[in-house]
Amino acid sequence: MAKEASGGRTTASPLSRSPATQPGLAGGLLGSIPLPKWALIAVTVAVAVLLLLFLVCIIKCCCGKKKPKKKEKVNLLSFSGPTAASLVQPGMEGLECSPEDKSRGKLQYSLEYNLRAQQVKVGVQQAADLQAMDSGGTSDPYVIVYLTSDVKKKYETKVYRKTLNPVFNESFTFQVPQAEVPESTLVMQVYDFNRFAKHDIIGEVRLPLASVNLQRVIEQWSDLAAASEVEQEQLGEVCFSLRYVPSTGKLTVVILEAKKLKRMDSHGLSDPFVKVHLILNRKKWKKKTTSVKKNTLSPYFNEAFVFEVPFSQIQNVDLVISVWDHDKVTKNEQIGKLFLGCRATGNQLRHWSDMLSSPRRPVAQWHSLQAVDVVDKALGLKTHLKLPLPAR
Asked: In this structure, are residues 271 and 333 in contact, taking their beta carbons and an 8 Å threshold?
């Protein structure tokens, strides 16, 4: 403490204050901020709350994983009656039927066979309770009728607008030899007509003729079933034998017979004959033709043809058998064809291999005719003619 001379009073110097009376660092900082005391307290509390919330979020993210809930177990044995059944299978009233399960309706038709004329007469009478195909709850039905023995010959009824119970009363006649009746199936398909889109099929009736008694007139109702896939057209079968003698290089082809040929004429028959082509290196080489058999779908030929094929070329040869329908007025039409050789497949390749493995012995076999365009594409024939380039 220092004493002042004037006034006889004693005062303390600011630098000589005791440590207990000096202000703290925080107090000095707060004192230097130009805010009232209550505002500083509020800011401090807000900062503390924010820090606390931040810490809580960190703790939850890092250490606060949710514990998995215990799975609820259902003991079916503790339930009885319809309650237990409902846990396994929903009520039938809540299920919608798939399109296949819905009723497509039914068709009334008649069928008779005229043995003397060898004709099948089909009558399409009416349909009832057809499935609605249009948005208005109706359909525009018509019926397509054909036999599987000749799928290209189809008849159609008239179209009846906006009805599910059309009355057709139309009849159609098919020429079918008695021997082919058991192998044919009558197909009646009900369609819904659409002017600007593809026609929708409602359902069909398939009736194998072998399963019905055609000695009397049949008239009955049948439920429509879901439509089957479109069957492949049956063109017929041909039987021939092959014989090859390596020492002489002679290939003998004997066309024996054919059966179940496709009907090409208006009266339900054909005038078939067979062409035998020999193709070397994908170019037509030699050709032979049988005689024409009139008005038959099961011709018998038994005609032999001999080709000279050196043994060195036998691997490069294709043998093409084609069955044609003869026509005096218009151009002859191909019914079907097939080819044999080392490039062939299936039964054709097997027949050719059997011929080569059994020299000097004829090997006969039946073959199904195939579509002309399919065989031509597989052969990939080259043209003999070179067209001249246009003059510039």
From this structure: no
Q: Please check whether residue 348 is in contact with residue 339, taking contact to mean a CB–CB distance below 8 angstroms.
A: yes
How many Cα atoms are found within 13 Å in the side-chain-facing hemisphere of 166?
A: 25
Using DSSP's 3-state secondary structure scheme, residue 126 falls into strand
Max intra-chain CA distance, the chain: 165
User: Rg of the Cα trace of the chain?
Assistant: 48
End-to-end alpha carbon distance in the chain: 131
Contact assessment for residue 369 and residue 238, using Cβ atoms and an 8 Å cutoff: yes
The bridge status of strand 2-3 relative to strand 119-128 is unpaired
What tens digit of pLDDT does each residue of 15-29 get? 444 444 455 555 565
3-state helix, strand, coil in the chain (%, to 5): 25, 35, 40
What residue has token string 């003059």? 391
Whether this model's pTM surpasses 0.70: no
CA 273, chain centre distance (Å)? 37
For residue 318, the number of C-alpha atoms closer than 13 Å in the C-beta half-sphere is 21
Q: What is the pLDDT of residues 201-251, one digit of tens each?
A: 999 999 999 888 888 899 999 999 988 765 566 788 999 999 999 999 999
Sort residue 45 into left (φ over 0), alpha (ψ -120 to 50) or beta: alpha
Encode pLDDT of 113-165 as tens digits: 988 888 899 999 999 999 998 888 899 999 999 988 877 788 999 999 999 99
Q: In sequence order, which residues have a C-beta less than 8 Å from that of residue 380 and are 6 or more positions away?
A: 282
- Which pair of structure tokens corresponds to residue 268? 């339900």
